[in-house]
Write a structure and sequence with these properties.
One of its GO terms (molecular function) is DNA binding. The protein is mainly α and about 80 residues long. Helix content is about 40%, strand content about 0%.
């Protein structure tokens, strides 16, 4: 049985419950552990699965089109 919430790939049920399982340091000093991964460099390679490749392409295309639309709006220019 999985603890993952349907529709959420990385979130478990425990993360959304009211209880926190983290133990706070007794001395209350700042910890050096990072909370997020930040931007992770991805290796550029061909995605072998055609369906995953098409999905990735359409998501990237949508993001680029959105950015170009915003840029065109700000500059008053047109794009195709």
């Amino acid at each position: 049985m999985s603890n993952l919430i349907p529709g959420y790939k990385r979130h478990s049920i425990e993360e959304f419950s009211g209880e926190s399982k983290r133990i706070r340091p007794a001395n209350r000093e700042k910890t050096t552990e990072k909370k997020t991964r930040g931007r992770v460099k991805i290796k550029i390679e061909l995605i072998q699965d055609r369906q995953k490749r098409c999905t990735t392409f359409s998501k990237r295309k949508a993001g680029l089109m959105k950015k170009s639309h915003e840029l065109a709006t700000l500059t008053g220019s047109q794009f195709r």
